[in-house]
Write a structure and sequence with these properties.
With 314 residues, this protein is α/β, with parallel strands linked by helices. It is built from 10 helices and 15 strands. The site of magnesium ion has 4 residues, from loops.
């Protein structure tokens, strides 16, 4: 797999140039986005994309999101529509992924799409991510940079701890600002919400003119859709109105706790802290992490989605 040890690259001109070259050379590079850290590879290189699945232990039927620096690069790969343009103008760059029919001539590894004729595309907002995408000069396939089924990484340290030497280098851009993954909107048919995330359903509805349809059935077009996902080592107990002895206590709002996602009850702050605090509590090896109730509105929908999967039977 990768070399003797993971290179930590700083997010300056030299680090970006090195990371870009490594991607072009077919290596795996961890990099920050505003949502979570991605595990990037050249999306046109079959061997490089295969090594993403190997490093994560990810089932091969789960397709990847392709990251691009601007709309022209996106439009070269997918069939664009007026609706896609409107949504893109409202939310890109940012924590939104669009699934659109792929152009037949697009040179994307079949492994990245898991053989589907649609492609998930995203323009991240984090300047480091976009600088890296420009430096690489190729479409970059990137799932979250964690072992499959485990907690998502929101710092370079999380990436190294989770994947170790399976990743050649990690570009260190500090902590991720949004903290939950992108919202995934299917636009290949009627607009469908495939995964709640950093852009709220209300915000999407404003641009779409109506709420997106809910995803139907359990057929898996997104791995974050598997019931058990985002799991810490500890069991997770949700909607904890009070605490049991010995539990690690993850609070929200005005409660006594070990770590508090947002003492003031701010969902944006809570999302940004979610995975960092789960990682920190889990590092103490508790049997159970108990979590305060999180309001199911706005970003709370994405937070509750991640927490309920973290709590699901494994
Ligand atoms: O915020 C994010 O989206 C992060 C950062 C790194 O960009 N990435 C991320 O990737 O969350 P990942 O692999 O953990 O989740 C990608 C999701 C999966 O649930 C996958 O099934 C879905 O995107 N996906 C990819 N291609 C798809 C397609 N053609 N149709 C439907 N879902 C697709
Ligand atoms: Mg993931």
């Amino acid at each position: 797999m990768a070399g003797p040890c993971t290179q930590i690259l700083s997010a300056d001109e030299a680090g970006l140039a090195t990371a870009g070259r490594m991607l072009r050379d077919g290596q795996l590079v961890g990099f920050p986005t505003e949502t979570v850290y991605g595990l990037g590879a050249d999306a046109g290189n079959d061997r490089a994309v295969a090594s993403i699945f190997d490093a994560k232990g990810r089932p091969r039927f789960n397709p990847l999101i392709v990251h691009l620096p601007d709309i022209d690069a996106v439009r070269a790969l997918v069939q664009w529509t007026d609706l896609a343009q409107a949504v893109a103008e409202a939310f890109w760059p940012g924590p939104l992924t669009l699934v659109l029919p792929m152009r037949p001539e697009a040179r994307i590894s079949k492994l990245a799409t898991a053989g589907l004729d649609t492609l998930a595309v995203r323009i991240p907002a984090a300047p480091v991510a976009r600088d890296l995408l420009r430096a690489a000069g190729c479409p970059v396939a990137a799932p979250s940079a964690n072992p499959s089924g485990k907690m998502s990484p929101t710092s370079a340290e999380h990436v190294v701890r989770g994947l170790g030497r399976k990743v050649a280098a990690v570009l260190d851009g500090g902590r991720c600002a949004v903290g939950v993954e992108s919202t995934i909107l299917g636009l290949a048919g009627r607009p469908t919400l495939l995964r709640p995330g950093g852009i709220t359903e209300d915000a999407l509805a404003q641009v779409l003119g109506r709420r997106p349809a809910a995803r139907k059935g359990e057929s898996i077009s997104a791995p974050g859709q598997l019931r058990s996902h985002y799991a810490p080592g500890a069991r997770v107990r949700l909607n904890a109105a009070d605490w049991n002895a010995g539990e690690a206590r993850l609070g929200f709002g005005e409660v006594e706790s070990d770590l508090n996602l947002s003492p003031g009850g701010d969902l944006t702050e809570a999302a940004a802290n979610l995975f960092e605090y789960l990682h920190r509590l889990d590092a103490e090896n508790p049997d159970v992490i108990a979590v305060s109730p999180i309001p199911h509105l706005g970003l709370g929908v994405a937070i509750n989605d991640r927490l309920s999967r973290a709590a699901a039977d494994r």
